[in-house]
Amino acid sequence: MKAKVLLIPLIIVIAVAFLIGWVYPAFTNGSDGVLEKYKMLKNEQNKLVELQNKSQAVNNLLSQLTSLPEKNILYAFVPEATEEEKIVNSLINTASSAGVLLMETTINQPNQKAVIAEDLEENSSGGQDPLAVSSALPKADNFETQVNLIGSYEKIKDFLTNIGKLNRNNNIDVLKISKNNSENEESANADSLLVSASIEFNLLKKIKMTKSYVNNEVFSGDKLEVGIINEIKSQKNANNFQLNIDQKGKSNPFQL
């Protein structure tokens, strides 16, 4: 009788041990157990919440940009296309107002330096978390515009200064100034100089929003940074171009 009484607890212990030995490996085995799958599911849920939050942040920024009264200043400063006609007209008007003779303008094709979203996605496909990949935003495509003109030293300075005040972002990359030895009587005189300049403009094409860009810090804020607009507007009143030449008391340092 006593043996039967002791046998029942022993059977229960054996049954519990067997049950634990059978259930526990299925619950967690270090790779694909219930516990591991639960953690994976929880991780994916956290990613989904993060994506939803960033998507909402992007929509908020887009809404602010759409309603921005001075957004056209941004679009004109770095447009989506080359807009060659506008560049030529701006150069002609600037030359005319400065009193120089614009002889030639040549616009070269843009050098594409943009970061392609698909390339970033391929780099992040090797088992890494795409959200953990630090992705760079696309860069502007730069292109050179060659300009040849003739004018006096002071008028050339006015032209170059006004180029820096255009509504469109630009940079004078190469500048060559020499004495004008033209045989044309209309363009050749004692004070006239020949200028060959390479002016760099740029454009920024629209891109398709992909997961490669989601983790960029530009989308982490909830307020659109518009300080750049004031900087663009203020450059119209600034003289950012200076000729670092020892004039030695002369109004024209190129004059002998």
Give the helix proportion (percent range). 40-55%
For the biggest sheet, the summary is: 4 strands, antiparallel
Could you name the ranges where pLDDT drops below 50 across 5 or more consecutive residues? 114-135
Helical segment tally? 8
Question: What name does the CATH topology of the largest domain carry?
Answer: Alpha-Beta Plaits
Count up the domains: 2
CATH superfamily of the largest domain: Ribosomal protein S6/Translation elongation factor EF1B
Q: Assign an overall shape.
A: rod-shaped
The CATH architecture assignment of the largest domain turns out to be 2-Layer Sandwich
Average residue-wise pLDDT = 75
Kindly provide the radius of gyration, computed on alpha-carbon positions and rounded to a whole number of angstroms.
34 Å
Number of beta-strand segments? 4
At the first level of CATH, what is the class of the largest domain? Alpha Beta
Order of adjacent strands in the largest pleated sheet: 1-2-4-3
SSE string = HHHHEHEHEEHH
The first-to-last residue Cα distance is: 130 Å
How does this model look, in words?
It is rod-shaped, with a radius of gyration of 34 Å. The chain folds into two domains: 2-66; 78-237, Ribosomal protein S6/Translation elongation factor EF1B (Alpha-Beta Plaits, 2-Layer Sandwich). It has a four-stranded antiparallel β-sheet with strand order 1-2-4-3. Helix content is 43%, strand content 16%. With 256 residues, the chain is α+β, with helices and mostly antiparallel strands. The model is unreliable at 114-135 (pLDDT under 50). It has helices at 2-27, 34-66, 71-77, 84-98, 117-123, 153-163, 211-214, 227-234, and strands at 101-107, 141-152, 170-179, 192-203.
